[in-house]
């Protein structure tokens, strides 16, 4: 499950990046357009990480190798209907 820990670490980094972007906007270091663009990219990457974790857990649940899970393209992950 070391890979899961690496994925969680990346998620935590991106959450920190989100916080820093919001702080940069509040302090005037960046404008709202820049913040919006960067946040959008971070959100898409976060969705891919969460999707990868769900894939890994599903593979474990069904007796498959979780290391066979792969990051899916943004277009696929973002196209999910909830």
UniProtKB/TrEMBL annotation:
Protein name per the record: DUF2630 family protein
Basic and acidic residues bias (residue ranges): 62-75
UniProt region (Disordered), positions on chain: 62-82
Originating species: Streptomyces hokutonensis
Entry-linked Pfam families: DUF2630 (PF10944)
Superkingdom as given in the UniProt entry: Bacteria
């Amino acid at each position: 499950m070391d890979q899961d820990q690496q994925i969680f670490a990346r998620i935590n980094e991106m959450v920190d990046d989100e916080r820093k972007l919001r702080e940069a906007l509040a302090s005037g270091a960046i404008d709202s357009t820049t913040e919006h663009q960067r946040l959008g990219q971070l959100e898409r990457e976060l969705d891919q990480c969460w999707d990868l974790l769900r894939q890994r857990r599903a593979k474990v649940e069904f007796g498959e190798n979780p290391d066979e899970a792969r990051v899916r393209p943004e277009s696929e992950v973002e196209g999910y209907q909830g």
